[in-house]
Design brief:
By secondary structure, the protein is mainly β. It folds into 2 domains: 3-198, Jelly Rolls, CATH 2.60.120.200; 221-345, Jelly Rolls (Sandwich), CATH 2.60.120. Helices cover 2% and strands 42% of the residues. The chain has one helix spanning 333-338; strands spanning 3-7, 23-24, 29-32, 42-45, 53-61, 63-74, 81-87, 93-99, 105-109, 115-119, 130-138, 144-150, 153-161, 172-178, 189-198, 221-226, 229-231, 252-254, 262-265, 279-282, 291-298, 301-304, 308-309, 315-318, 340-345. The strands form 6 sheets. Strands 1, 3, 4, 6, 11, 12, 13 and 15 form an 8-stranded antiparallel β-sheet that branches. Strands 2-5-14-7-8-9-10 form a 7-stranded antiparallel β-sheet, with no helix packed on it. Strand 21 and strand 22 form a beta hairpin. The longest helix is centred in the C-terminal third of the chain and has 6 residues, at 333-338. The two termini are 24 Å apart. The structure holds calcium ion (2 copies). Residues 8-10, 36, 40-42, 193 line the site of one calcium ion.
């Protein structure tokens, strides 16, 4: 599987957070323009100090890795603020990485009563400074492990520890970033950006990715296909779906014809590209199942991603190519700009 999910927080607004995440903490979790890295948007709290966070479902995994850029504006005054928490399907808090009032990262099993498994030194997280924190967690009663990296440096390595809370399953099925409903009374102030989740399978993106950026790119021109039907407004298909924030029913493309494809051109930044993750904001408007997939059109050949189900409400559907599917080699910027990407109706 390798890369499972990445988020720039740059292509949607606060009202659309739960189109991508299983849940968010209350009404205080917001997308904030220009508060992230490189002048882009980030995820933060609307009250400072306050509570904020999101939970993303993942495939059932014993071992997974999460990474995020974080800038604190104030460390938690008391108690500890959750950075990452691994949950099982019953929402048991199995193991978490929490930020302390001294700027350490504390690794703990269960939330209440919590069991501290280990901690980094204090002053690791410095107020007002962007850090990139990555945590690998293996869920197990006896051979669990947790490895923490800060700014590319390993700062904690716990082996053969109990990372599975009593009553919790043997895997994690969700990762929480920041606060969730299971914690309380720990207010702090921070911003998250460039969030990723991967596992340890496959030949790429199967270990710590390092201090990455998640670079949001919107369609800039027509690609190889325009078989869906544009609705609302003027212009070509790609112009209906290039919104910086999805404008939903205002203008869009649609199709109910299995096999119908749309594909758009994108720009690329320079440098290494660890993965390409197409994201579409999708809903269906009639009863019955409707599935789609993302296609990459490369040199006239189509490569089709996993099937994605749609619902009557808008949701962000994403898939991942860890490598260029035409060459099985790492993506290059030229691969991205020469190809075109978009949705295909499967059934
Ligand atoms: Ca961002
Ligand atoms: Ca639109």
């Amino acid at each position: 599987m390798s890369l499972i999910f990445a988020d720039s927080f740059d292509h949607y607004d606060t009202s659309q957070i739960t189109r991508k995440y299983a849940s968010k903490y209350g009404t205080t979790t917001v997308i904030s323009a220009a508060s992230g890295r490189r002048g882009t948007a980030g995820l933060t709290g609307s009250t400072n100090p306050g509570y904020f966070g999101v939970t993303r479902g993942i495939p059932s995994l014993a071992t997974s890795i999460a990474g995020v850029a974080i800038k604190t504006n104030a460390l938690p005054a008391t108690n500890k603020a959750p950075l990452f928490v691994w949950f099982d399907g019953s929402s048991f808090f199995s193991v978490g990485a929490l930020i302390t009032s001294s700027g350490a990262i504390s690794i703990e099993r269960n939330y209440s009563p919590n069991v501290v498994l280990g901690s980094t030194a204090g002053n690791l997280i410095k107020v007002g400074i962007w850090h990139y924190i990555e945590v690998l967690a293996t869920i197990h009663d006896t051979t669990g492990q947790v490895i923490v990296r800060a700014d590319g440096i390993e700062v904690l390595n716990l082996q053969n520890v109990d990372t599975r809370a009593t009553g919790a399953g043997p895997t994690a099925t969700a990762i929480q970033l920041g606060h969730g409903a299971k914690e309380s009374s720990t207010q702090w102030s921070a911003v998250f950006d460039d969030f990723y989740i991967c596992d340890t399978s496959g030949s790429r993106n199967n270990t710590f990715l390092g201090d990455i950026k998640v670079d949001c790119r919107l369609p800039v021109a027509a690609g190889s296909y325009a078989q869906w039907t544009p609705f609302g407004g003027a212009g070509a298909n790609w112009e209906h779906v290039k919104d910086a924030v999805p404008n939903d029913d205002t203008d869009y493309v649609w199709s109910d014809a299995p096999g119908a494809r749309d594909a758009y051109k994108y720009t690329s930044g320079p440098g290494r590209i660890l993965a390409v993750q197409p994201v579409s904001c999708v809903r269906k408007d009639d009863a019955g199942a409707r599935t789609m997939a993302h296609i990459a059109e490369i040199a006239g050949a189509d490569y089709t991603g996993v099937n994605l189900g749609s619902t009557d409400s808008y949701s962000f559907l994403s898939s991942v190519w860890d490598a260029n599917p035409a060459s099985s080699q790492e993506w290059t910027p030229a691969d991205v700009t020469a190809g075109s990407f978009g949705p295909k109706v499967i059934a």
